[in-house]
Amino acid sequence: MAIVSQSSEYFIFQTSTQYSSSISKQYVNYASNEITSYLDNLEEAFDSLYTNNDFQKFLSVRPDLLSEQAEYIMNFRPIIQNSLKFHPEVLGVLYLDKMGKVYFDSYQTQLDSQFNLYEHPVYRSILNTETTQLSEPHLLDYVLYPNDTVFSFIRPIININSGTIESWIILEIQADKILNLLNYTDYEQAGQLILYHPHTQNMVTNNPLDTNLAQDLWTNLHNKGEQQFVFESNNAEYEATYTQLPNQDWMLVWIAPLSSIKQAVTKSYYLTILIGSASLAIALSIGFSILNGILRPLYFLKKGMQSLGRGQYVPIKLKERHDEIGFLIHSYNQMLEKLNKMEQEVYHSKLKEKERELLQLQAQINPHFLYNTLEAIDSYATRNNGEAIEDMIQAVSKMMRYSIRKDGGWAPLQEEISYIQHFLTIHYYRNGQKVNTSFNIDPLAMNQIVMKQIIQPFVENSLKYGWNPNMSSAEFKLSLTVKVIDNGLHITISDTGTGMSKDVLEPVQGLLQSKGKHIDAFFNIHTGILNVYRRFILAYGEDAYFQIESARGKGTKVEFHIPLKEN
User: Name one Pfam family in it (predicted).
Assistant: First the structure.
């Protein structure tokens, strides 16, 4: 009995620990996605600044040409100020370059003009940075009356004319904003999240760690290769789980004491023994005299449920009884009748739900696309370019009208092609450069009915991942081919750009191979491909196929075949 009791307690503890590890891993990944999503959204908010024509000219101006600097600043400053309005946690935007120019913009503080930023260790090191990075927290000491601690979010700027990086934009984020992302109150297990910088061994957390605990954690992080491990510190055991923040030097670490799990296991163990003993005593007191009268009808009930599991509705025929067993079997037979009726109702309900979900997915609009389009219109308005403004307003108006039109989510291919051309018009005005495109459309396909917005998301992704303004028309070409083949439409979207990176291509291939059953965490942020694939499956099901091929430096090809739809 003692061996069984100890074994039970051991297995309960092991199961609880495994469960805790699984939940901890999910939580760390969730928190990592939250931080990464925030930084990505913050970077996107300032995207229109980096390609702004006046800002690009400002990059090359010599420090002594103050009047030219002032002219360019007056033109691109509204972009910075508008983005700051939507991000009050950003105390200011700092510009530095290798020529020695300094520019600072903020609603909340002022630059100390006597402060030498190029002698400051944090900002001096930025001059060697070629990737987007989040600095360690530090005092914002180059402003008047410094008293704020910030994380510097560093963004290298590519000079479009030279293709070099000699300038940087630094977004000064209040430290409390990042710390709040580490404070997830819905997670019930005792513990805390830590931002850990392996190169400097700096640990950032809401509750400072004990010195010995911090040292022991650092030692185990460097000595153990597993992402989850248990270690000892101050005569106590701790569970640790960590992950690497994407594209950053930081690691996100979760630690929790195992003492809380042990206490819960002990309570569960004694409660289990108590309940088990009581249940056994009650069962033995009932006796065996009534078992025969219960087991026989229950045997028939079991056979009936097995038939139900195979999809066969077989009622149980039994002499009329007025006890609980009789009531149970009578209720079971009534349930079979209701199930048969509900099966038909569910079938018709699913058809309606499928149509509703398809329309919901088609109605989604990318807010960043609309926001950036309005930013571009505003930029051309400041330059009194009426022709560009008229073209963009006409294009976005027609795109919106096409998107929200009540047509059941279907339209002729000719209208889908027009939608893509309007999108390319807006892309041209936003980036100041036309994309080399080729449209090869079978005339027989133009009036065929297709699911709306089935092609445009892949054209947009081709430009997002494969094209940049430095590419010539010979380096990048976007091709759209539509043919009528085998009583269906064969559609190909290809480009000769840089191709998808491994961390983008692998989740996409996994989605296609699993036919949408496996959805990677990548799609928590990048929802465009997921939404169009879900709509593709809902609309065409098994009557269509879909594939994506991509290679770095060679480009990307999206290819799918859909059946013709009757008008």
Answer: HATPase_c
CA-to-CA distance for 218 and 147, rounded, in angstroms?
30
| 44 within 8 A of 368, measured Cβ to Cβ | yes
Cα separation, 388 vs 383, in Å, equals 10
Query: How far is it, in rounded angstroms, from Cα 159 to Cα 166?
Result: 8
Cβ atoms within 10 A of the Cβ of 439, count? 12
* pLDDT greater than 60 at residue 4: no
Q: Say if residues 218 and 201 touch (Cβ distance below 8 Å).
A: yes
Same domain, 233 and 213: yes
Q: Let me know whether 143 and 202 are in one domain.
A: no
Tell me if 267 is assigned to some domain: no
pLDDT tens, residue by residue, 198-248: 888 889 998 888 888 888 888 888 876 678 888 888 888 888 888 889 888
Question: What pTM was estimated for this model as a whole?
Answer: 0.47
Question: Two tokens at 344?
Answer: 């038909």
Q: What is the dihedral of CA 366, 555, 413, 484, to 10 degrees?
A: -150
What are the structure tokens assigned to 99, written together?
A: 């020529």
Q: How far apart are CA 262 and CA 189, in angstroms?
A: 12
CB-CB contact of 196 with 203 (8 Å): yes
- Domain identity same for 222 and 368: no
Host domain of residue 163? 46-179
Which residues in 421-476 belong to E strands, given as ranges? Answer: 437-441, 449-451
Residue 555 β-bridge partners: 551
